[in-house]
């Protein structure tokens, strides 16, 4: 039990960016590398969990021992997460696009013949919030739901507000003001729970993932013992 504290548990992890198609060759995306989310999936598997990793487009290898479901859009990511339920824990590390394109063009959008026509106008629609959806009360809610808050300013107040608004159990808050987080090796995070805030030292993303996985294992064991 000490070696495989998460055996018999199912963990759901989201990772990477989403790509929202404009037409068959163009999309709206973001700079998430998927490194932190993939490291969390690997760390949970390392502790014995069955892991479903729902990943947007990344250039990382699939972590070993993890079932990877590859998606592009936020809507696909939500559907894949819902299909993966039930889960004991959900960790939403993906950088989900807040908006998708209202009507993606079925064929490549072309410039007009003269080249000085008015440019196309993209109409956006809000995407589902996967974290908030998974954290909503209900019979399929995982016992532990964890989100991230990447902020450039007022990190802890914004993260606290997000903790409330999303209905999740924990938020890992990280300061992305320096621009040194996306794709980088290291991460500085604060763990917000209902009982307070813990400041974690700057660590490799793999070490953040291991520490989070240990905390998840401990908390699920405590919840089962109640
Ligand atoms: O609202 P914001 O994007 O800052 O929240 C970040 C957290 O919410 C992350 O855990 C992210 O994975 C999750 N999220 C989500 N679905 C969205 C937007 C954010 O799961 N549509």
UniProtKB/TrEMBL annotation:
Task: Tell me where in this chain the DNA/pantothenate metabolism flavoprotein C-terminal domain is found.
Answer: 6-218
UniProt entry keywords in alphabetical sequence: Decarboxylase, Flavoprotein, FMN, Ligase, Lyase, Magnesium, Metal-binding, Multifunctional enzyme
Q: Which GO terms describe its molecular function?
A: FMN binding; metal ion binding; phosphopantothenate--cysteine ligase activity; phosphopantothenoylcysteine decarboxylase activity
Q: Which cofactor does it need?
A: Mg(2+); FMN
Which positions does UniProt annotate for CTP binding? 98, 108, 128-131, 148, 162, 166
Sequence segments annotated as region (Phosphopantothenate--cysteine ligase): 11-226
Its pathway, per UniProt, is: Cofactor biosynthesis; coenzyme A biosynthesis; CoA from (R)-pantothenate: step 3/5; Cofactor biosynthesis; coenzyme A biosynthesis; CoA from (R)-pantothenate: step 2/5
Cofactor binding: number and manner: Binds 1 FMN per subunit.
Q: What cellular component GO annotations does this protein have?
A: phosphopantothenoylcysteine decarboxylase complex
Reactions listed under catalytic activity = (R)-4'-phosphopantothenate + L-cysteine + CTP = N-[(R)-4-phosphopantothenoyl]-L-cysteine + CMP + diphosphate + H(+); N-[(R)-4-phosphopantothenoyl]-L-cysteine + H(+) = (R)-4'-phosphopantetheine + CO2
For this protein, the Enzyme Commission number is 4.1.1.36, 6.3.2.5
In Gene Ontology terms, what is a biological process of this protein?
A: pantothenate catabolic process
Query: What family name appears in the similarity comment?
Result: In the N-terminal section; belongs to the HFCD (homo-oligomeric flavin containing Cys decarboxylase) superfamily. In the C-terminal section; belongs to the PPC synthetase family.
Q: What task does this protein carry out?
A: Catalyzes two steps in the biosynthesis of coenzyme A. In the first step cysteine is conjugated to 4'-phosphopantothenate to form 4-phosphopantothenoylcysteine, in the latter compound is decarboxylated to form 4'-phosphopantotheine.
Q: What is this protein called?
A: Coenzyme A biosynthesis bifunctional protein CoaBC
């Amino acid at each position: 039990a000490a070696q495989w504290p998460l055996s018999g548990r199912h963990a759901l992890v989201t990772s990477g960016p989403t790509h929202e198609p404009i037409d068959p060759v163009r999309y709206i995306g973001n700079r998430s590398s998927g490194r932190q989310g993939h490291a969390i999936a690997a760390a949970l598997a390392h502790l014995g969990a069955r892991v479903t990793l729902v990943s947007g487009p990344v250039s990382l290898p699939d972590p070993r021992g993890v079932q990877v479901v590859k998606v592009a859009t936020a809507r696909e990511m939500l559907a894949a997460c819902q299909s993966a339920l039930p889960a004991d824990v959900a960790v939403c590390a993906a950088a989900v696009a807040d908006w998708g394109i209202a009507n993606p063009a079925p064929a490549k959008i072309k410039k007009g013949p003269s080249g000085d026509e008015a440019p196309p106008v993209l109409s956006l629609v809000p995407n589902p919030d996967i974290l908030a959806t998974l954290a909503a009360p209900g019979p399929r809610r995982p016992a532990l739901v964890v989100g991230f808050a990447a902020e450039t300013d007022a990190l802890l107040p914004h993260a606290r507000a997000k903790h409330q608004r999303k209905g999740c159990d924990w938020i890992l808050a990280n300061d992305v003001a320096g621009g040194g987080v996306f794709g980088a090796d290291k991460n500085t995070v604060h763990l917000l729970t209902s009982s307070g805030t813990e400041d974690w030292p700057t660590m490799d993303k793999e070490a953040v993932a291991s520490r989070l996985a240990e905390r998840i294992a401990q908390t699920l064991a405590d919840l089962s013992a109640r």
